[in-house]
Amino acid sequence: MSAEGMNPQKDPLHPQVQPPTDESARGQDGQRLQHAEGASKPVRAPAAREAQPRGAKIRGDRPIDQAEAAERFIAAPLHQAAHDARLWDVRKKRDAATQAIPEWEELRELASQIKTHTLANLDTYLEQFEAAAKANGVHVHWAADGAEHNRIVHGILRDHGAKTLIKSKSMLTEECGFRHYMAANGIDIIETDLGERIQQLDDEEPSHVVMPAVHKTRIDVAEVFARTLGTDPTNDDAHYLAESQRVTTRPLILQADAGMTGCNFAIAETGTVVTCTNEGNADLSGNVPKLQIHSIGIEKLIPRIEHLGVFIRVLARSALGSTITQYTSHFRAPRKGTEMHMVLVDNGRSARLGMEEFWTSLKCIRCGACMNTCPVYRRSGGLSYGATYSGPIGLIIDPTFNKRKYSTLPFSSTMNGSCTNVCPVKINIHEQIFAWRKVLAEEHQIPLLKQGMMKAAGAVLSRPAAYRAAIGAADSALKALPRFAVYNPANTWGKKREMPETPKQSFHAWYKQNRMKGGAK
Amino acid sequence: MRVGLFVPCYVDAFEPEVGIATLELLERFGLKVEYPYDQTCCGQPMTNTGCHAEAAATEALFVKNFSGFDYIVAPSGSCVHQVREHLTAIPQTEEVKAVRSRTFELVEFLHDVLKIEELPWAEFPHRVAYHNNCNSLRGIHHARPSELNKPFFSKPLDLLKKVKGIEIVDLARPDECCGFGGTFSVFEPAVSAKMGYDKVTDQSKAGADYVVSADSSCLMHQKGCAERLGLPTKYIHIAQVLNGAAA
């Protein structure tokens, strides 16, 4: 264990990394460097220890209780505060980066139009992509669902006698339950994205599409690494932890039998897979082993290389508030003496493409901006959603995978609309959340109690006399405003907030008394 | 010009002075304002929960009450957003469409329709944080949301600037939702309250004596949160400030 004996106080591993107070790290324009993590205000790990709150309880297909998991996250105030502060910081950087270019809103519109066009002609572009990739000497596979994807990749590995696989972060493989499938089939997987590696070592799903371990503090990571890599459990210095992971993972990367990446953009005209990372880990995964596999969700297509620039410009600005990711890597053809496979995965996408109100969710480029801006997400933690995709985009995608299990998620929103405004491809996220609620209510996928309450509320609110009688009983049940809460025996309003005072008379009574003298109906 | 006053249910029951201020303010501009006596609610609690069928009768009643007016004015961005964007559980007849398109929130009615220039009676010598209700901000476009790279504008702040003595303070997170969210406040109480606590803490840190908003529902939630945290911040509807409330 080469991490042993390191003392970050005496022997800084990276003396070139300046503390956040250092003002020397300025770019040519005199501004402090604004590259991704380098510019982020490090959120200090809390001095006091607090157990990491875990995610939603998964009980088969039973609806996820996001509210319950979120309540536990909030009950861990150090984690919640660090999580909220970290993501709000990213949201502010995103604002600054987008306001720095006058054409930002045009870029969003352009990105949206390119995606809309591609999705409307997806069959054509997929065939074009396949033909181009084959011409490049790539083996192209098609997978209808996650299970088929896993079988195909396992088959490729088996054919080559590969036992170890290094891979970069991919939400698609999370969708497919890839890691669990491969573990059950005796394949060792090593995640090469640091955050994803942390989550893998802790046997936990990623909580965020860009920052998989953002819900963890440094102390949590120190605990995980101590348990799994043998590091000093009392040392939570970020450089020590990152270096320890690097030292233990590098040999595994160099010796791996096969490598795998996801895909940010797949270019139809050239058959190229483009990945965007800040750690260069997709390059390691793709370029080190002699066998490389790229898993591609079919919605990742864009028509031509000239369109890529639009997305490169919006992706990193939206995701982290940086102008560009550190690495934008193009994988097109196998290197000499190696083999390259691409797996095009549907897994519910073509069905979603046929959903009139929800198909534009396929425009998503997985930047995570909607999560960072979401006030509910920041206070709940991504694992509270109990699904591959959390936050606003998750609320509208997850029910397409399992309507019953994720029936509660579209209600974990105040529909404030900030998500829609930050979306770089202009998905009307909050309107789709609203639309999902309607679909779920119509299909009776919402709790009977809730629907019953709404039926009762509708009955009162549509009958002036009944409504007046309810308002008149001002010191009884109606104290529990909002009025729909009248039907809620638990009085969840009053537990956390003071109740509004009941006024002497309603507006209606005032109007009758003051404006309708003698004339009241 | 026939102007109908819509007083949302929670204003009717809990903030009658907001309804009174709205009525008096409109009358100050020489309007003859009618109050349809059988009005109840816009249907929002039901539609926000996905229960459109359950909202249909309430929506039909709303249209019946407000049909025939040139303008329907309400002191609530959230309810106006519901009427304009989501009153769809009933057949969209010409009558329904007319009512929907003629429904205005008070601030936009004063700012865009009446285009008022001065409020000589209004004086509010206090430090004020303005709360943009999310539906007012992003749904009916009261102001430029902070997410967009577009020129700044704010209709409520334009109006408040006409009030003597008022001082506007800036929040650290100006457009952050306060967590009310209609039925969300009841079904997700922990997150809702935490958002509320953070919001009222931000207002307090900004040095606000008063928080002013165009939506009573957010104010009611924030007031409940501030009182629970023991903060002295006071909450008042913009209709009252514009109508010359002395606080």
Brief overview:
The complex is a heterodimer of chains A (521) and B (247). Helices cover 45% and strands 9% of the residues of chain A.
Quick one: CATH superfamily of the largest domain in chain A?
A: NagB/RpiA/CoA transferase-like
Widest sheet of chain B: strand order?
Answer: 2-1-3-4
The overall pLDDT average of chain A reads: 88
What's the main sheet of chain A like?
A: 6 strands, parallel
Structural class of chain A: alpha/beta
GO cellular component, one term (chain B): cytosol
GO molecular function (chain B): oxidoreductase activity
Domain Cysteine-rich (chain B): 3-83, 128-221
Organism (chain B): Methylobacterium brachythecii
How would you portray this structure in words?
Chain B: InterPro entries: Cys_rich_dom (IPR004017). Chain B: This is Glycolate oxidase. The complex is a heterodimer of chains A (521) and B (247). Chain A is an alpha/beta fold. Chain A has two domains: 36-345, Rossmann fold (3-Layer(aba) Sandwich), CATH 3.40.50.10420; 448-515, no CATH class. Chain A has helices at residues 36-39, 66-74, 77-99, 104-120, 122-135, 146-159, 171-175, 178-184, 194-201, 218-228, 238-255, 281-287, 305-319, 349-353, 369-373, 375-380, 391-401, 418-422, 429-442, 448-461, 464-472, 492-496, 507-515, and strands at 139-143, 164-167, 188-191, 258-261, 265-267, 272-277, 291-297, 301-302, 327-331, 339-345. In chain A, the strands form two sheets. A six-stranded parallel β-sheet of chain A has the order 1-10-7-4-2-3, with helices on both faces. In chain A, strand 5 and strand 6 form a beta hairpin. Chain A starts with 35 loop residues before the first helix and ends in a 6-residue tail after the last helix. By secondary structure, chain B is of the alpha/beta class. Chain B is globular and about 50 Å long. The two termini of chain B are 32 Å apart. In chain B, strand 7 (210-213), helix 12 and strand 8 (234-237) form a beta-alpha-beta unit. Helices cover 47% and strands 11% of the residues of chain B. Chain B folds into two domains: 3-113, no CATH class; 127-242, 3-Layer(aba) Sandwich (Rossmann fold). The longest helix of chain B has 17 residues, at 189-205. Chain B has 13 helices and eight strands.
